Amino acid sequence: MSAATDTLASENLVIASPGGSPARDKGQIRASFDPGDFPMPHFREEEWRFTPSARVRDLLAGASAASSGFTVRVEGIDEVSVEQVGRDDARLGVAFIPVDRASALAWVGFDQATVITIPRGVNSDRPTTITVTGTESGTISYGHIRVIVEEGASGVVVLRYEGSARLASNVEVSVGQGGSLTLVSAQLWDRNAAHLGRIHTRLDRDARVSQLVASFGGDVLRLVSTVDYTGPGGDAELLGLFFGDAGQHLEHRLFVDHGVANCRSDVVYKGALQGDGAHSVWVGDVLIRAD
Question: Do 177 and 106 form a contact (C-beta atoms < 8 A)?
């Protein structure tokens, strides 16, 4: 992973170092596959100050965890490849680098990843659905999902989270040249669940993603969606819908890194709250680099 890390870091990222100073601006994103490079948050820094510390501290403590606290079920079309792979699979960790402690812990903690590949020549509007069902409310679990859309292909992937779990997870997406992906992520957790998640999408030349995040369930949800581009003509549409009830904390953070000329992004989130203690956080950032 070090070679991939160094390559990506030289383009847009600053590799984190233990105890190092935080990035001065959004152009210096701290990134590392090692959780030790991200200190335990004190929940006063900008990145974490809105997150309820007492309700997620165990997920960020770095204690031993397993992938046994949830099950994964995939339903789809024959043309789309679905695989369960070990963490040594060469397709993992090539389209993203963790940028916070939760994402880094999820990276080192998972045992098996689900890899969805939409191959060249496939253009379908029928969805492939990945259902992640939490089975143990007190077990800290880590997960990883990899979505690959090959050159010129198009498809629909639906992520559905349900049940009860304490989960930190990554969704790593790459869309090849001229490809298109509709990605839906529905958080339908039971009310005692906690989920710290990241979705990162990398778009090649003339590639497109339309992402919809719908968040309704759980006790605490913190979902970070990020996008970067590797060639001109990339197009990202990030849509979100959330509804928080009494006592829920629903947090959505988005960051689009325009490091390539002639690319587009559009972000629209809408939500509502009801009941005592219902809380939402929405932070959206876009970085237009000098070139």
Answer: no
The span from the first CA to the last CA of the chain, in angstroms, equals: 28
| pLDDT tens, position by position, 24-39 | 456 567 899 999 999 9
The rounded Cα 118 to chain-centroid distance in angstroms is: 19
| Strand-pair category, 81-86 with 249-258 | unpaired
Q: What angle do CA 236, 241, 84 make, to 5 degrees?
A: 65
| Tokens (6 digits) for 279 | 């809380």
Q: Tell me the C-alpha distance between 265 and 259, whole Å.
A: 12
pLDDT digits (tens, 9 = 90+) for 69-82: 899 999 988 999 99
Q: From CA 215, how far away is CA 116, in angstroms rounded?
A: 23
Tokens representing residue 61 in the block: 């403590």
Q: How far is CA 277 from CA 189, 192, 211, 250, 283, in A?
A: 18, 15, 28, 11, 20
Question: Does an H or E element contain 129, and which?
Answer: strand 123-149
- Quickly list H helices, 72-150: 101-109
Closest CA to 220 of 247, 191, 249: 249
Give the Cβ contact number of residue 32 at 10 Å.
25
Pairing of strands 220-229, 249-258: parallel
